[in-house]
Each structure stands twice: as structure tokens, then as C-alpha cells.
């Protein structure tokens, strides 16, 4: 497995990680045994990075990772580089989604995550969403304090703008920024890819196979209707979903012609974008994880990359990547 550095001062990790939101029924029902099978396959394939969060479940993803690690004995702190997140919460009066970046909340939630994972520290701790009422410089100072306490080795932010990254990095090196990035979502190329590369910050790409659109098994309209997130997502509503499945048909054909799967080819494209980019595909299937790993091992030449971008040019996708409600929290930028 190819290796990437997690920030300019961080550990070397596998070129892809596991996005563990799929351990929490987000894309369909699963259980602890299935999640443990994914983690065991990851060890076999040389995948050493796991990305989770307190919000996944909530708590389910971290708990099943914790029970898997508990089975590993003394080596549990050495087999994976773990990232987790906090800051997404609910308004106590309305129940609406809210964000809390206060020092008290972040440390308290981190303590809960460490207990569920059964570890003394995590390699990477993200602010899952920015609370705009607290300056990012102040939040960064909080995260530096958690490093000093030994609870985290490094920190990052999820879905922030390049300008916010630079403000935070002026206080302390930001090891990673997490953003949706794939052949279906090229938005990070409007500054985030460039800024993270310049600062030595890892760009951790979630949903690298386009929430199934960039695989050989795109989500059907009937399946999308059963999943709360996709049901309200513009790309998975009709007529957009049917248009997107058709738009990606030539990509699937190209992958087959190249002797690989569409998921592997989409991962390979991202891995070849730059050495600081780390895709974190999620799955409930060991076989699908093996496809992702095959993509991380693929070598693409300039002609192959040109062919990929010819069948999926900039702007091919129908519908926004988020609904109006889902856009609450992520920072937009240009």
C-alpha cells in the first residue's frame, strides 16, 4: 500500500483510509460483525487510517471500532491511526442541528470518544463543523491545549474554506482538512487543494466514490428513497439521479476496458491528484473495500487520466451536492 503523511509533522499512513460513517447505518443497515469484518480486511490490505466521529450513530461507529481494538490486545494502539471529530450537536429547545466549538464541549466530547474507542489519545481530532460565533483562532488555541494534554497528536477541521485554514494555521499547523472531493465534486480545486498543499496539510477526501455514483453499483432511485440523507439530496432526487447514472455510464465502461472497477478507478484518480490527498471511502462490504484498495495501488499515466476526465469533465453532475438544509455548516468559498 502506498503511504501518505498526515500533515507535515504527522505519521505515515496508508494512501487511503476507511470512512467509518458506514458503520452507523447511514447508507443502510449494518452491525458490529460487519464493521469488524471491514476492519479485519483493512489490516489484511495494509489500510492504517480510520476516520470516525461522535456523531456517527451517534457513538455507534466509535463503539464498534473500540470493541475491535479491544480484541487486538497490546497492539491496539499501534495498528491504526485514528481520527475522530466533535462539534455537531442539537439545539436543546428546537432539536435542530447546531454546532459547538467551545473548549468545554470539544474536550468533553473528545473524552467520550476516547472512552468509546478505548484509547488514551487519537492521532487526529477534527472540529466537525465550525461554530461561526467563535473565532477560528480561539478554537485553534483550544486544540493546541488538547495536544499539550496528550489527548490528541494533531488536529484538523472539516469543510472549511481556504481562508479559514490560513487563519488557523497562523496559530498552529493544521494537520488535515476534510472535504468532499471526487470526480463528482471538484469544488476543492478552487483553492483548498492548493492551500493545503502549500501549508503541508493533508486533504482528506470523503465520499471519494460520489456516494455510489462513481461505482459499478450506483444507488437506485428506489434505494435512495430509503436513506434519509440521500432522499433529500439534490443529486439523488429525480430527475437528477437518473441523469447522473447515465452520465457516469461511460466511466463504468472505461473502467471495465481498463480491467478494473469504477470504484477503483475513481480512487486511483484522486490518489494521483497530489501526494497530500487521502481518500477515505466508506463501505459495509469487505469486497468493496478491496476494490478501493486496488484503486490505491493502480498506476495511471497521463493518457489514462485524460481519458477519465474526458468521460467525466468538470461540471458533469446534475444537482447540488447538498440540499439547503445540508449546506448549514460547511463553508462555501471561491
CATH top level is: Alpha Beta
State the domain count.
1
Shape: globular
* Reported CATH architecture: Alpha-Beta Barrel
> Can you tell me the residue ranges where pLDDT is under 50 for at least 5 consecutive residues?
none
- Number of DSSP-assigned strands: 12
Distance between the termini: 34 Å
Structural class: alpha/beta
- Calculate Rg over CA atoms: 19 Å
What is the ordering of alpha helices and beta strands? EEEHEHEEEHEHEHEHEHHHHHEHH
Q: Helix proportion of residues, in percent?
A: 25-40%
CATH fold group: TIM Barrel
Mean pLDDT: 96
How many individual helices?
13
CATH superfamily: NADP-dependent oxidoreductase domain
Features:
334 residues, alpha/beta, TIM Barrel, globular
Topology:
Elements: E1 3-5, E2 12-14, E3 18-19, H1 32-45, E4 49-51, H2 60-70, E5 81-86, E6 88-90, E7 97-99, H3 103-117, E8 124-127, H4 136-148, E9 155-158, H5 162-169, E10 176-180, H6 192-199, E11 202-206, H7 221-224, H8 228-231, H9 240-247, H10 249-257, H11 262-271, E12 277-280, H12 286-297, H13 302-311
Parallel strand pairs: 3-4, 4-5, 5-8, 8-9, 9-10, 10-11, 11-12
Antiparallel strand pairs: 1-2, 6-7
Helix pairs in contact: 1-12, 2-3, 4-5, 5-6, 11-12
Description:
- The protein has 334 residues and is α/β, with parallel strands linked by helices.
- The protein has one domain (3-210, 262-300): TIM Barrel (Alpha-Beta Barrel).
- It has 13 helices and 12 strands.
- The strands form 3 sheets. An 8-stranded parallel sheet has the order 3-4-5-8-9-10-11-12. Strands 1-2 form a two-stranded antiparallel ribbon.
- A hairpin with a 6-residue loop joins strand 6 and strand 7.
Amino acid at each position: 500500500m502506498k503511504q501518505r503523511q498526515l500533515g507535515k509533522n504527522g505519521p505515515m499512513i496508508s494512501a487511503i483510509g476507511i470512512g467509518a460513517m458506514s458503520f452507523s447505518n447511514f447508507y443502510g443497515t449494518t452491525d458490529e460483525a460487519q464493521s469488524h469484518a471491514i476492519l479485519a480486511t483493512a489490516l489484511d490490505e495494509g489500510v492504517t487510517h480510520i476516520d470516525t466521529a461522535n456523531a456517527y450513530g451517534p457513538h455507534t461507529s466509535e463503539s464498534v471500532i473500540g470493541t475491535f481494538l479491544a480484541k487486538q490486545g497490546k497492539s491496539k494502539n499501534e495498528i491504526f491511526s485514528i481520527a475522530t471529530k466533535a462539534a455537531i450537536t442539537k439545539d436543546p429547545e428546537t432539536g435542530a442541528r447546531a454546532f459547538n466549538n467551545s473548549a468545554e464541549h470539544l474536550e468533553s466530547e473528545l473524552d467520550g470518544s476516547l472512552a468509546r474507542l478505548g484509547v488514551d489519545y487519537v492521532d487526529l481530532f477534527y472540529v466537525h463543523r465550525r461554530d461561526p460565533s467563535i473565532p477560528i483562532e480561539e478554537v485553534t488555541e483550544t486544540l493546541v491545549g488538547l495536544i499539550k494534554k496528550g489527548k490528541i497528536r494533531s488536529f484538523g477541521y472539516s469543510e472549511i474554506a481556504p481562508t479559514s485554514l490560513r487563519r488557523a494555521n497562523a496559530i498552529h499547523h493544521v494537520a488535515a482538512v476534510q472535504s468532499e472531493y471526487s470526480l463528482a465534486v471538484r469544488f476543492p480545486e478552487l483553492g483548498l487543494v492548493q492551500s493545503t498543499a502549500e501549508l503541508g496539510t493533508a486533504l482528506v477526501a470523503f465520499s471519494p466514490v460520489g456516494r455510489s455514483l462513481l461505482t459499478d453499483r450506483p444507488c437506485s432511485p428506489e434505494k435512495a428513497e430509503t436513506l434519509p440523507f440521500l432522499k433529500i439530496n439534490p443529486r439523488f432526487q429525480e430527475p437528477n439521479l437518473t441523469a447522473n447514472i447515465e452520465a457516469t455510464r461511460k466511466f463504468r465502461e472505461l473502467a471495465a476496458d481498463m480491467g478494473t472497477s469504477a470504484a477503483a478507478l475513481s480512487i486511483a484518480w484522486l490518489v494521483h491528484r497530489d501526494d497530500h490527498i487521502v481518500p477515505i471511502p466508506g463501505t459495509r462490504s469487505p469486497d468493496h473495500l478491496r476494490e478501493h484498495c486496488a484503486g490505491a495501488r493502480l498506476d495511471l499515466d497521463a493518457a489514462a487520466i485524460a481519458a477519465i476526465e474526458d468521460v467525466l469533465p468538470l461540471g458533469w453532475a446534475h444537482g447540488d451536492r447538498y440540499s439547503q438544509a445540508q449546506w448549514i455548516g460547511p463553508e462555501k468559498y471561491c
